[in-house]
Amino acid sequence: MSQATFRFYAELNPFLSHRKRHVAFKHSFNGRQSIKDMIESLGVPHTEIDLILVNDESVDFSYLVQDGDQISVYPMFEGLDISPVQRLRPKPLRDVRFVLDIHLGKLAAYLRMLGFDTLYRNDYEDSELARVSRDDHRILLTRDRGLLKRSMVTHGHYVRETNPRRQLVEVVRHFDLFRSVEPFSRCVNCNGLLETVDKETVADQLMYQTRQHYDEFQRCTECGQIYWKGSHHQRMEHLIEHVLAQEPTSSS
After folding, report:
1. What is the architecture, at CATH level 2, of domain 2-74?
2. Which of 61, 88, 173, 214 lies 20 to 30 A from 239 at CA?
3. Alpha-carbon distance 221 to 6, whole Å?
4. Do 93 and 137 touch, CB atoms closer than 8 A?
5. What is the pLDDT confidence band of residue 79, given thresholds at 50, 70 and 90?
């Protein structure tokens, strides 16, 4: 029986059992195992990891763990330059696009509200989510740790928060999307792009009160849903203001 000593840092700890959090602990194993498989067997998805040090040397996921190894595992670094060592996260996607699992429907609508290309269906199978993430180069957002452990998933994030509004802030902060927001440019129902339309064009589709009180309209180019700046729009504006106010300020 061989043993390696592990230490996980920062937001990786909640994935571990309580007795293994924030401490160095020994892990016993038999045979040849990759460090990726061993870490995921402890509960941490590979998509959450940015750096692994073994005996103070950076390694990739294919490294075979040896008896006596001292292993440190780190999440994404926000303010520390670690360019001299081997980062494990793939390069960020040039165009930020998402696909979400069945539990994140409200978050999907909020991300679309901010203008982000977001796929969501309430009948996606796990295998399909992983395939869409890989083939369409989309970031997979999920509350399912096992889904992020699938080898084909390269860009993903385990959503920690359970409240949809806090989830939205979490995702925007995690991927630093504050300056990429384009509010009210996508349909919250189907993800289609919105276009400005004349009132006369959609007048026959509007309720009487809406025709009387509003003059500016948008329409989804995919599903035809019509939008105007009613009370619901104002509530969404307040939510957007709240999200944008969470942008971290640079210390002088």
Report:
1. Roll (3.10)
2. 214
3. 52
4. yes
5. very low
